[in-house]
């Protein structure tokens, strides 16, 4: 599938893009050297694109007790459980880049449990995995394990929210046949 064709669905992108959207895409080009295909896929409906980017920017870039790397690690663990090709490639690249460790990015994508992680990160990822596999089985003991690892209740909310975000985006990406930009495959290697 061509890198400029983000999804199996043939939904036309709004053309021309509204000025604010074009500025956002220009910032992506400046910072990443590409417009992520997920944004191109949503560009058939600017309101949906704006809703998605607002949620993404708040969850992944907004203030949090979780580092950007930790949030990307959650994205990869959730995407690994869900077998979301788009997110494994894109967020695996982000883990490589943010950590400065290509091997960590590969471990996270293949089997995060083989990575040499801090106990705090291990507790966070065990929680995210459990939420992804069986959210109804989360109990107070699971939240307490996070507190014991040094997370605040606000942090626990953020872990759950980032986990929920990627459970949603994984399903949308897989359901629509979304493919990652080719550039992600070679980033931070």
Q: What is the third-level CATH name, the topology of the largest domain? A: AhpD-like
Structural class: mainly alpha
**CATH class category name of the largest domain:** Mainly Alpha
Percentage of residues in strands = under 5%
Q: How does CATH name the architecture of the largest domain?
A: Up-down Bundle
Helix and strand run: HHHHHHHHH
The strand count comes to 0
Shape field: globular
The CATH superfamily of the largest domain turns out to be AhpD-like
Number of helices: 9
**Total separate domains:** 2
Proportion of residues in helical segments: 55-70%
Q: How can the largest sheet be summarized? A: none
Q: How far apart are the termini? A: 23 Å
Low-confidence stretches: none
List the helices and strands and how they pair.
Layout: H1 19-32, H2 37-42, H3 46-61, H4 68-82, H5 85-99, H6 102-111, H7 119-134, H8 140-148, H9 153-176
Helix pairs in contact: 3-9, 4-5, 4-6, 4-7, 4-9, 5-6, 7-8, 7-9
Structural summary, described in words:
- The protein has helices at 19-32, 37-42, 46-61, 68-82, 85-99, 102-111, 119-134, 140-148, 153-176.
- The model has no long low-confidence stretch (mean pLDDT 93).
- The protein has two domains: 19-61, Single alpha-helices involved in coiled-coils or other helix-helix interfaces (Up-down Bundle); 68-186, Up-down Bundle (AhpD-like), CATH 1.20.1290.
- The longest helix has 24 residues, at 153-176.
- The two termini are 23 Å apart.
- The relative contact order is 0.17.
- Helix 4 packs parallel to helix 6 (102-111) and helix 7 crosses helix 9 (153-176).
- It is mostly helical.
């Amino acid at each position: 599938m061509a890198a400029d064709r983000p999804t199996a669905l043939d939904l036309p992108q709004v053309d021309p893009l509204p000025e604010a959207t074009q500025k956002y895409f220009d910032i992506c080009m400046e910072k990443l050297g590409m417009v992520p295909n997920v944004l191109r896929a949503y560009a058939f409906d600017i309101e949906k694109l704006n809703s998605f980017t607002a949620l993404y920017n708040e969850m992944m870039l907004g203030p949090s007790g979780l580092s950007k790397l930790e949030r990307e690690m959650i994205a990869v663990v959730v995407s690994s459980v869900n077998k979301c090709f788009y997110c494994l490639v894109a967020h695996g690249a982000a883990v490589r880049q943010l950590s400065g460790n290509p091997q960590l990015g590969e471990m996270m994508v293949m089997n995060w449990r083989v990575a040499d992680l801090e106990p705090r990160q291990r507790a966070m990822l065990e929680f995210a995995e459990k939420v992804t596999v069986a959210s109804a089985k989360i109990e107070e003991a699971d939240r307490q394990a996070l507190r014991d690892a040094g997370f605040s209740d606000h942090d626990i909310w953020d872990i759950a929210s980032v986990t929920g975000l990627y459970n949603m985006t994984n399903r949308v990406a897989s359901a629509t046949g979304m493919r990652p930009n080719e550039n992600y495959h070679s980033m931070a290697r």
